[in-house]
Each structure stands twice: as structure tokens, then as C-alpha cells.
Amino acid sequence: MDAEKRLSARRKHTLKSCMLVVANNLLEAEAGVKADEREKFLADKCPPIELPYSKDELLELCQKLHEQIDISEEERYSIEFKLNMVLNEVRDLNIKIVDLRGKFKRPRLKKVRMSADAMLKALLGSKHTVNMDLRANLKQVKKEVKEEDKQLRDVGDWRKNIEDKSDRKKMFDS
């Protein structure tokens, strides 16, 4: 059954070439129709100009052309305004769609190492230069060295220390 449904390569090639010929004819016919429509539109909107020889007739022709230009500019402006309104409406509807979905892709933020001075400068602007040296504001604690600790550190030779302890042991024994 698969063999019956399959087309031979030659048959496929002929079908493709026939389809291309038909599509090409349709495109040519469509291009001809568009050209005819363009010529008809231009004939309606822009009749052939017959230049008069007198000054009054030339002034009248200029005024007529000026009025036609004004009308075409008004049409262009109204079409442009409608287009902008539609584009704004589409943009608003897209925003509403995104809001209704509730899925916002948050951009990945880069980690920035910044000192406190640079951060304050960025927040407050370049006018406010605040030097914030955190280490300078820390309390300085003076270490008090106790005599006992000093004696423990200055033990010296460990053999002497043992001999001193042995004397003390003798005192408790007696």
C-alpha cells in the first residue's frame, strides 16, 4: 500500500514544475492588475496638465494645484493619525496581555563591586563628595596587658618551670 501512494521522482519533478509555471502566471497577472490600478488612480487624481499662455490662467492653475495639495496633505495627516492611534492601541493591548499572564522575565543583574564612596557618589551625584572611610570610624581598643598573662608568656625554659612546680609539690606533701 505504501508503494501505491509513493510518487516517482519524475512524477514529483513534473508536478513541481507545473505548480511553478501556474504560480508564475498568477504572479504576472497580479502585477499587471496592480499596474492597471495604479495608472487608473493616477489618471483620476492627476489629470494631464495643459499649460495656459496667459498670466491669469496660470495663477488660476496654481491656486487649483495648491488646493489639491492641501486636500492630499489633510488626507495623509488623517491616515497617519489613525495609524498612530491603532499602533498605540496594539501596544496597550500587548501590555495588558503580558499583565494578565503575570509572567515577567526579570533580567539577570550583574554583580557590581562598588565602594561606599562610589555608591554615595552615584546616588547623590558628583556635586556631593562624601568620603566615608568605614575603618576610620571604628573604635580603637587599646589592649591592656595583664601581669599574669605577661608572666605566663615569659615562662622561659620549660625545665625551670618543672623544677618550680616540683618545689610546690613538696610543700603540699609536707
TrEMBL record:
The keyword Transferase does not apply. This is Troponin I type 2a (skeletal, fast), tandem duplicate 2. Keywords: Actin-binding, Muscle protein. SUPFAM superfamilies: Troponin coil-coiled subunits. InterPro entries: Troponin, Troponin_I, Troponin_sf. Belongs to the troponin I family. One of its GO terms (cellular component) is troponin complex. It holds the Pfam family Troponin. GO terms for molecular function: actin binding. Troponin I is the inhibitory subunit of troponin, the thin filament regulatory complex which confers calcium-sensitivity to striated muscle actomyosin ATPase activity. It comes from Seriola lalandi dorsalis. Transmembrane segments: none annotated. One of its GO terms (biological process) is cardiac muscle contraction. The keyword Translocase does not apply.
